[in-house]
Amino acid sequence: MSIAAPKRCKGWLQEAALLMLLNNLHPDVAERPEELIVYGGRGKAARNQEALDLIIKALEHLENDESLLIQSGKPVAILQTHEDAPRVLISNSQLVPNWATWEHFDELEKKGLMMYGQMTAGSWIYIGSQGIVQGTYETYAAVAAKHFGGSLKGTLNVTAGLGGMGGAQPLAITMNEGVALIAEVEEWRIDKRLETRYLDYKIKDLDAAIDRALEAKAKGEAISIGVHANAVHLLARLLERNVVPDTLTDQTSAHDPLIGYIPHTISLAEANQLRQSNPDAYLKLSYASMHQHVAYMLDLQKHGAITFDYGNNIRARAKEDGLENAFDFPGFVPAYIRPLFCEGKGPFRWAALSGDPADIAVTDQVIADMFPENESLQRWLKLAKERIAFQGLPARICWLGQGEREKAGLAFNELVRTGKVKAPIVIGRDHLDTGSVASPNRETEAMLDGSDAVADWPLLNALLNTAGGASWVSLHHGGGVGMGYSIHAGMVIVADGTDTAERRLARVLRNDPGIGVIRHADAGYDIAKDVARKHRLDLKEKLA
Ligand code: NAD
């Protein structure tokens, strides 16, 4: 049975790009759709309304042998390529290294010349908080395995920020059976997480929130509490009361001191006003607050809290403000995620273009049947079905490794070809992946060979996925940790049930994690060397 023709575009690849762009801006998905902001402070899907309208029009006109070029959220050309080439090529927020600061970016943004794309915001493969729930679930599962015998039951886990990404923390912690206590300054964010059932309780009073969390810890209850407070105030109170969390981290938007982080010395309303009226004064308060924030984290670490940076660059901000030992606690990647990266594992995700949740149920079953021996994957699929409400297009994510992604992608293409799902499946991933990012304070922190800041790898990743025929490919700067701190690449590929898609899927879903395995083997990791040999990715063996 062949699938129906796309409704608005001349091919399913263009239609997929259009639907995923609109999905990024769906009110249930985006943090501030009216400003085109998807997540992560000011991570946008398009530069402005005019650019968005033009992208939509361009995708509707785009032929099956043409490619649309996007420069920092603005469409700039449609050029002849060929059927197997990406339909869209995206470059977001790239600055020449010597100019790669927020200050310079802000000037350009004011002039309308640039846009901040974060990771999946500007590359049109954000699927709401579920995307990060899996990564956060994996991280806390690794924390539990390393420090607490496999479960967070009876532990107090303190963090902050309930935004687009941070909103996943309460659910990921309770899925690992722990108690979550999370500070958030914007009340509507707490309410939003309550609505989507990621968070269990809102408590406004600091002491009441701490008391309830301690009670839950004592009883071994798995609950999450959003406390309406600044993170700095919560940590100060914990220290005053001598309450030491079992784990401690933070997901406020510290990567962006002007737009993302709210200083503890002023109210939210004052912050919103000062940011406009006197950005320099705001920045001073913001840096001072992050300095204090990290100093409290270090204090709690000394008292025994297992403390880690959750990828928002707050340690660097504190250090820039003069806190010399800000990096005394580790980032979450070297501490917990790198062994997974060595196996090519990372955040594989997919969305059903039909909009029908039944299509995701079919894919869930395929994945469950395909990897029966993978216990944490089986547990995740079960919990995700029970506890995760879809936002926008129904979608699923799970961490799959070298060999597995290819297998899953080809199986999905078969589902489309045989009409077991109602429309094509879009397959993508976060840029936070094994071979697609250079980010010395996060994904590539403390590499074995010291190659943390080498950015050839994400560039090669984007070139490779373009050559292999991904449906859209993006190259971004500054995602997660801010301007000057990261270079990363994204790819999305559409399973439309055709033979050509099958060949593209086989290439792209082998090569994309493959370059991650190769990157980690090159840096000297033994697990990656073994995986490279097993999957015929080792250059010397190939040439022998
Ligand atoms: P967001 O901007 O949507 O949300 C940040 C939240 O923090 C907001 O709700 C804001 O009100 C709150 N906040 C800011 N300052 C605060 C303070 N001092 N006290 C309490 N609350 C405060 O951002 P997001 O998408 O949730 O991302 C959060 C951070 O995590 C970003 O820096 C992002 O780059 C990083 N991140 C990490 C990972 C990872 O894998 N670890 C992944 C994605 C994003």
Question: What does this protein structure show overall?
Answer:
NAD(+) binds at residues 40-41, 118, 164-166, 184, 189, 230-231, 251-255, 261-262, 310, 480. It is an enzyme of class 4 (lyase). With 544 residues, the protein is an alpha/beta fold. The protein has two domains: 12-30 and 46-116 and 338-543, Urocanase superfamily (Urocanase fold); 136-329, Urocanase like domains (Rossmann fold). Helix content is 44%, strand content 15%. The protein has 19 helices and 17 strands. It has helices at residues 12-24, 49-61, 102-110, 130-147, 169-175, 187-195, 206-219, 231-241, 268-277, 279-302, 314-320, 332-342, 357-370, 375-387, 404-417, 456-468, 499-522, 526-534, 539-543, and strands spanning 37-39, 43-44, 66-71, 74-80, 88-92, 156-160, 179-184, 201-203, 224-228, 247-248, 306-307, 346-352, 395-400, 425-429, 437-438, 472-477, 487-495. Strands 3, 4, 5, 12, 13, 14, 15, 16 and 17 form a nine-stranded mixed sheet that branches. A six-stranded parallel sheet has the order 8-9-7-6-10-11, with helices on both faces. Strands 1-2 form a two-stranded antiparallel sheet. Strand 3 (66-71) and strand 4 (74-80) form a beta hairpin. Helix 16 runs antiparallel to helix 17 (499-522). The protein is globular, with a radius of gyration of 22 Å. The structure holds nicotinamide-adenine-dinucleotide. Nicotinamide-adenine-dinucleotide (NAD) is lined by residues 31, 39-41, 132, 135, 160-166, 183-186, 189, 230-232, 251-255, 260-262, 264, 310-312, 432, 480.
